[in-house]
Design brief:
By secondary structure, the protein is mainly α. Helix content is about 75%, strand content about 0%. α2 packs antiparallel against α3, α2 packs parallel to α4 and α3 runs antiparallel to α4. It is rod-shaped, with a radius of gyration of 25 Å.
Amino acid sequence: MNKREVQEAAVAQGLGAPPDRNGLAVAALILGAVGLSTSIFFVGGPLGIIGLVLGVVALITTRRTGADRGKAVAAVVTSALAIVVSALVAVLMVWYANHTQACYRPGGFHEYTQCVREQLT
């Protein structure tokens, strides 16, 4: 057996198969994870959108190439969660600002906290 036949036999048995690499899935997963961890500060929304787009493209690529889909699916999930959490934080901030609108006048911190307690109860 020559060297090429040995390599072909190893690949056929799954011993020497090259690892499936999907750079888009890795990038999308990183963006999704960073977006999820920063979604409280509104940065996660845009990062989640970019990660979601890259994750969907990675899923389409895995369908065509047969690469491992796990990272692409995890990227889509984390990116979608980052978008949802960012949207919830934005809604809660708007709700809070709307309910404590009367408290935004010059004064001390003690007056502000007292006003917020009165507005939210």
